């Protein structure tokens, strides 16, 4: 006769979860903003919105994950960067409408709580929050031992931001003649990894080797964290104003054309000149192993992680401000009227240099 069931025997180690919280506590608390009320460990995160700062504040929210890039992190047993990716995916969606990221909450589901691994993941999330100026006000770690493998995990997060109602950015502000300013990506960011992993496996590529054209191993290239543009984009709006900065598009799944199209109003077209930047070597490597160019441009950012539609007279100032904040930027195209009713909303011309 059994002596009784225990939660640990069923696959949930409460003690390990508590140790993980202890290990991550200092990193989480380092993200605090003055508006954060209380500390880590409550049932809910509290944030005091200073309504005196705003005339008509709108709250913005975004939820996303990292996707199968986590499989690369597991293969290399490196877990301190995917948290940055997680933050980037949500805060850079927020800033696309002009919202300032305020706070974020994460969700980590795993097969087994390894405190050091969970702490590394959340420390990365905290690092991303610091880059975005957002507070990490809490989260949840769930151990699903009977549903996931012991070393499996997945990540998700929700971020909340705020923007003045009369300062919301988007297609309503975009005009013919606007300049499309491109901001360089740091790599593949967090999109296209199901395709990347399929090619790596099929071609027998070694994550620990350094392919021709790269200056680091393929694994390091694929784990490069997503660039967080939020504070640089907000600084651009603060300096130039919404009369000059009309829209941002975060280049994620769907590629450059597909995401730029989301901020182009009916009747206009964004024409992007590929010759204004070089195709990243890592993308070219995947094309060498069978990925068609058309598929690269749909699945990957191809070197551009964010674009801004700005008034033409503000374009050079915008580029100077972005580069001053460490974000390489250039004029990649312009907004024009459609030549034909059947033209796509966004299209690319020319070849990569």
Automatic annotation (TrEMBL):
Residues 58-163 form the PurM-like N-terminal domain. Signal peptide: none annotated. GO terms for biological process: 'de novo' IMP biosynthetic process; adenine biosynthetic process. It is found in: Cytoplasm. Pathway: Purine metabolism; IMP biosynthesis via de novo pathway; 5-amino-1-(5-phospho-D-ribosyl)imidazole from N(2)-formyl-N(1)-(5-phospho-D-ribosyl)glycinamide: step 2/2. Residues 175-338 form the PurM-like C-terminal domain. Keywords: ATP-binding, Cytoplasm, Ligase, Nucleotide-binding, Purine biosynthesis. InterPro entries: PurM-like_C_dom, PurM-like_C_sf, PurM-like_N, PurM-like_N_sf, PurM_cligase. It catalyses: 2-formamido-N(1)-(5-O-phospho-beta-D-ribosyl)acetamidine + ATP = 5-amino-1-(5-phospho-beta-D-ribosyl)imidazole + ADP + phosphate + H(+). Pfam families: AIRS, AIRS_C. Its EC number is 6.3.3.1. It comes from the Bacteria. GO terms for cellular component: cytosol. One of its GO terms (molecular function) is phosphoribosylamine-glycine ligase activity. It is an enzyme of class 6 (ligase). Belongs to the AIR synthase family. PANTHER family: TRIFUNCTIONAL PURINE BIOSYNTHETIC PROTEIN ADENOSINE-3, TRIFUNCTIONAL PURINE BIOSYNTHETIC PROTEIN ADENOSINE-3-RELATED. This is Phosphoribosylformylglycinamidine cyclo-ligase. The lineage of its organism: Bacteria, Bacillati, Actinomycetota, Actinomycetes, Geodermatophilales.
């Amino acid at each position: 006769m059994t002596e009784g069931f225990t939660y640990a025997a069923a696959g949930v180690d409460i003690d390990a979860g508590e140790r993980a919280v202890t290990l991550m506590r200092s990193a989480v608390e380092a993200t605090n903003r003055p508006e954060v009320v209380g500390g880590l460990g409550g049932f809910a995160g509290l944030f005091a919105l200073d309504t005196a700062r705003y005339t008509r504040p709108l709250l913005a929210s975004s939820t996303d994950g990292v996707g199968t890039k986590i499989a690369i992190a597991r293969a290399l047993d490196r877990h301190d960067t995917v948290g940055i990716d997680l933050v980037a995916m949500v805060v850079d969606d927020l800033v696309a409408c002009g919202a300032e990221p305020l706070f974020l909450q994460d969700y980590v589901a795993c097969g087994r709580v390894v405190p050091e691994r969970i702490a590394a993941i959340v420390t990365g999330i905290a690092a991303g929050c610091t880059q975005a100026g957002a507070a990490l006000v809490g989260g949840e770690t769930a151990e699903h031992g009977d549903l996931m493998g012991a070393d499996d995990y997945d990540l998700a997060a929700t971020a909340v931001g705020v923007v003045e109602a009369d300062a919301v950015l988007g297609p309503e502000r975009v005009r013919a003649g606007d300049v499309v300013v491109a901001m360089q990506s740091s790599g593949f960011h967090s999109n296209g990894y199901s395709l990347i992993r399929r090619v790596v496996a099929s071609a027998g590529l070694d994550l620990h080797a350094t392919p021709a054209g790269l200056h680091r191993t393929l694994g390091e290239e694929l784990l490069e964290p997503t660039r967080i543009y939020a504070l640089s984009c907000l600084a651009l709006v603060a300096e130039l104003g919404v009369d000059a900065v009309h829209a941002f598009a975060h280049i994620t799944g769907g590629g450059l054309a597909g995401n730029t199209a989301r901020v182009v109003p009916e009747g206009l077209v964004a024409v992007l000149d590929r010759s204004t930047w070089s195709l990243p070597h890592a993308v070219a490597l995947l094309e060498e192993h069978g990925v068609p160019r058309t598929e690269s441009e749909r699945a990957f950012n191809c070197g551009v992680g964010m674009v801004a539609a700005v008034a033409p007279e503000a374009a050079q100032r915008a580029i100077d401000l972005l580069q001053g904040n460490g974000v390489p930027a250039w004029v990649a195209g312009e907004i024009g009227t459609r030549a034909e009713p059947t033209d796509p909303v966004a299209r690319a011309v020319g070849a990569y240099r």
